[in-house]
Every structure is written in structure tokens, then in C-alpha cells.
Amino acid sequence: MKSATLRLTTGVDLAYTDTGAPENYPYITIFAVHGIIFSNLVFKRVQSVALSKGFRFVAISRRGFPGSTPYKPEEINTIINAEEPAENRYAFMEARGHEIASFIDIFASKFGLPISKDKISGSILLGWSQGAQYVSAAIAFAPTLPSDVRIRLRAHIRSVVFYEPPPVTFGLPNAEKNWMPIFDVTIPEAPRIQMVAQWITAYFNHGDLTKRDPNALEYVVPATDKSPSIFNNAQADMEGLECYTQDACLDVPLFAFADQFKAIYRKAIGCAEVMQLFPDLKIAFVVGERSPSFAWVGLWAVQDDQKEIGSTKIIHYKVIPGANHLIHWDNPDKALEVFTSKL
């Protein structure tokens, strides 16, 4: 698997890992964007099986994570300043969306990726956990890119997969009982951040999920029949996987952008400009049966929001039996199947 860096026209560098092209042509390329705490190396196990299944898998490292350009002081100020104007926050996310979309455009041209003409070609844009914010922004703000870039993106992007985003990722309400270590200020800051990886990769025993009842969810205590995903790995597998640098931890204050996230998410799934640019775009929402409560609250929140705004956009909801938040780590074959099936 190749590790490299791609420079955008803005001078920003985005690091990535790439499986390379499979023997079959045409083929589907998956561009994956990682979430909080974990680097793009969190996709290395699913990348290890992608090539043999006939897919190309590219894992992008977001700004602030290893290999990619750090945020500038003024960008950091936009993130952490509680009094930052809404229009600045919106512009910040537009820039992040343009970075992801521009990466796809430049990468596709550089490596001659097949365009989306049938069921076996084109590109899938996958956002895992908080990475869904950046995928949503990439689609929502694609219409404000230069016309030649828009034309190329239209030809390449076939599908979007929102993979277990918390509801706040789209500016939607959390459950009243919502709990995550990262928000529990009774835990000292350093262990609080490090605890996230253990808790978020655990398995949870929920009640009857078909009732869509938030009271049926387990919010705090992981199950004991299966260890968290990160406990089942050799130390070599974990190297570079978790990031606790100051830049990487800027993901936490981004949750204050809820109003902007909601507008961006709604724009991505229903804006006339977006639908005109990507008229055949398929959208999927993937959740593991035993994932943390936020994954299920996120799914239900999206479904409820679809009804509230009267959206006619079809979203394919996919539930993976027995899976947790790291199905792409624990069962990469199954993850790849779900990410690509009917998309």
C-alpha cells in the first residue's frame, strides 16, 4: 500500500494511503475520510482486502492529522473562538469541503480513474464518524468550485456513504441521555481524550432497535462478551492509528458548529444546485447493530429530519448485524461489501 501526499491548488497538502489500481478495469474507487482521534490508518485493514475484491481504496488524512498541512493560526481561531461569526464558520467548512473535493478531482486526473458510467466504475465518497462532516461539505459546496472541476466531479462521483456519524455531525439533536467520555468534564482532560478510543470501539447491548426508542439504547456501559476493537491488536497494528496531538484534538471544539453543520448537511442531500450537479448521486447511511448509542440516534435523527423538511431524496439505510463502530477494522470484508453494495 502506497503512502503519499497530494498538493492542492491552494498549496494545502493532504496525505493519503492508496491501494493502487486493481487488475480489472474499469473499477470503483473509494475515497474515505476518517473521524475523530483516529488517523486515516484506521482504514488499513479494509484497504488490505479492497484490492483483491477489485476496488481501489484511498484513505485521506484530514488537516491537522499526520502528513497533511496543519491549520493556520487564523483557522484555529475560527475553530476555538466561541464568538466567531456564523459566516466565518460556514466559510471554514466550505474550505474544508473544497479540499476534499479538490483532492478527488486532482487524484482522479493524475491516476486516470474510471468515470462513473455503469455499476462497476466511478468513485464512492465515504465519511466515517466525524469524517461525515467533511464528506457532507464536499458535496454541499461542490457547486461553488470552478466549472471545470465541477464537470469532472460530476463524471466521477457516483455515491456517498455516511458511516455512523453522530447526530451533531449534521447539526441534529442528540438524545437526552447522550453520554460520551469526551464530554464528561468530571474526567481529567488527558485521560478523557484517550478514553474515547477504548469506549468508541467497544460493543454495546441495546434493546429492541425496531421500536426506535432512545430509552432502549445503552449509553454508557459496553458489553463484556466482546472486547473493544483496539484491544485485539498487536502493537504494530496500532502504530500511528491514534492521534492525540493538539491539532487533532481541534475536532472537539468543532462540535460548536452545529448550526452550520445542519445547513451543510441539508444542502448536501437536497439543494437544487447539488441535485442538478449530481442528479444520479446515491446516498447511504451505515450503522452497526452494536455500535455506541450516538450511531443509532444519528440514524433516527436523519430519518426524522428527512420527514421534517419533506425531502424526496432517497437514503439507503444499512444495518450491519453484530457490528460495532469499527466494523472496517474487525470485519473488513463485510464492511467493504456494505460500503459498495447497490451503490
Topology:
Elements lengths: L1 E6 L5 E6 L9 E6 L10 H7 L4 E6 L12 H8 L5 H26 L10 E7 L2 H10 L6 H10 E7 L25 H12 L34 H4 L19 H13 L1 H6 L4 E7 L4 H17 L5 E6 L6 H4 L1 H9 L3
Parallel strand pairs: 3-4, 3-5, 5-6, 6-7, 7-8
Antiparallel strand pairs: 1-2, 2-4
Helix pairs in contact: 1-12, 3-4, 3-5, 3-8, 4-8
Organism: Pholiota conissans
InterPro entries: AB_hydrolase_1, AB_hydrolase_fold
Pfam families: Abhydrolase_6
Describe what you observe in this structure.
- The chain has 343 residues and is an alpha/beta fold.
- The protein has a single domain, classed as 3-Layer(aba) Sandwich (Rossmann fold).
- The chain contains twelve helices and eight strands.
- Strands 1-2-4-3-5-6-7-8 form an eight-stranded mixed beta sheet, sandwiched between helices.
- Strand 7 (282-288), helix 10 and strand 8 form a beta-alpha-beta unit.
- The relative contact order is 0.15.
- The mean pLDDT is 93.
Order of helices and strands: EEEHEHHEHHEHHHHEHEHH
Arithmetic mean pLDDT: 93
**Proportion of β residues?**
5-15%
The helix content is: 25-40%
Order of strands, main sheet, comes to: 1-2-4-3-5-6-7-8
Q: Which structural class fits the helix and strand makeup?
A: alpha/beta
Topology, number of strands: 8
Shape: globular
First-last Cα distance: 25 Å
Under CATH, the topology can be stated as Rossmann fold
Main beta sheet strand tally, sense and closure: 8 strands, mixed
Please name the CATH architecture.
Answer: 3-Layer(aba) Sandwich
CATH superfamily assignment? Alpha/Beta hydrolase fold, catalytic domain
- Regarding quaternary structure, how should these chains be classified? single chain
* Number of alpha- plus pi-helical segments: 12
What is the CATH domain class? Alpha Beta
Low-confidence stretches: none
Q: How many structural domains are formed by the residues?
A: 1
